[in-house]
Amino acid sequence: MSQSLPNQSESTSRKVWQLAWPTILSNLLFTTVGFAHIRIAAELGTSAVAAVTTGHRVFFLIQAVLMGLSVAATATVARAWGAEQVRQAERAAWSAMQVSVIFAALLALPTLLVPTAIASLFSLDEPTTLSASGFIFWLGVFSISSALNMMLSTALRATGDVITPLWFLLASSILNITFGVILALGYSPLPAMGVSGIALGGGSAGFTVTLVFLAFWWRGRFKLLPLRELAVNMRQVKELITIGAPAMVEQAIIQLSFLVFFGILAHYGTNAYAAYGIGISIVSFPIVIGFGFGIAAATLVGQQLGAGRPELAVAAGWRSLRLALLAMVSGSIVLVVFADPLARFMIDDPEVVHFTKVFLYMIAAAQPMMACEMALAGALRGAGDTRFPLFSTFCGLMLGRLIPAWVFFTLGLSVYWIFAVMLFDYSLKAILLIHRYRSHKWLDIKVGTGS
Question: What is one Gene Ontology biological process annotated in the Swiss-Prot or TrEMBL record (predicted)?
Answer without folding.
Answer: monoatomic ion transport
